[in-house]
Amino acid sequence: MVITQDEIKKFSSxxxxxxxxDLSNYSEKSLSRRIQKILExxxxxxxxxxxxxxxxxxxxxxxLKDITxxxxxxxxxxxxxxxxxxxxxxxxxxxxSINIWHSGCSTGQEVYSMMMxxxxxxxxxxxxxxxxxxxxxVLEQAKKGIYKYRxxxxxxxxxxxxxxINPFNFEDIKNVPYDxxxxxxxxxxxxIMNKELRDKPKWLKIDLVKEENLFYKKFDIIFCxxxxxxxxxxxxxxxxxxxxxxxxxxxxxxxxxxESIIGESEHYFKKKYRYYVRKSF
Length: 281
Hints:
Layout: H1 5-19, H2 28-42, H3 46-55, H4 57-68, H5 78-88, E1 98-103, H6 109-120, E2 127-133, H7 136-144, E3 146-148, H8 149-152, H9 156-164, E4 182-185, E5 190-193, H10 195-198, E6 202-205, E7 219-224, H11 233-245, E8 247-255, E9 269-272, E10 275-278
Parallel strand pairs: 1-2, 1-7, 2-6, 7-8
Antiparallel strand pairs: 3-5, 4-5, 8-10, 9-10
Helix pairs in contact: 1-3, 3-4, 5-9
């Protein structure tokens, strides 16, 4: 089934009426794929889907969560974390206070990865960690800091690559045990982040499409990885301008490996290392 542009507009309008969430500037290609999957999963035709959304608020909420969900993992893309560890964070060591915002944090593994890295660099005590997502379910999981052990097993290798091994000097190996930051219970198939990590961030539901900064701070680093790809170019530019406004001078915006800042947005950021640094006017 091919989802037409008119159907995407109708779907977005109905969901907005029910939930107040604005999908009008989402990527049409991305929305088309998501709508097709929703129809298949719920065994509905398009007319039936609109009827269901209008009359079933729980289904509408579930669909919204399915559309806005993002994947994350511990120390995803180790080379990006190496860039943070050896090029970006050392420059912040002179600051008394460091503000970091994980926008679209999903289930929180990225947030915990960052806190582990900050701890290894002796920066955690002077860092303020903020994390947000539109999906309250993933936020609750992030707050609990409990993850499937077997599902995350492959990511322990990323932990080793980032925290134990120096890619620029393989003789420089640190002994960083896993239980320094989380407990592993193989019988229950879970890993649990230590309480001091769970209690550190300020977690908040934030609708990025509305350009909300409910933390009322300016930041040294903003993470927004693998979120912009779901938006059209107009909304991408608007959000990039929003991030620029809420970053301090020479601060960094960290987006996904397959995302880039091009066109009008280049007026606000320039590429540096693997990330983007805020331009000053």
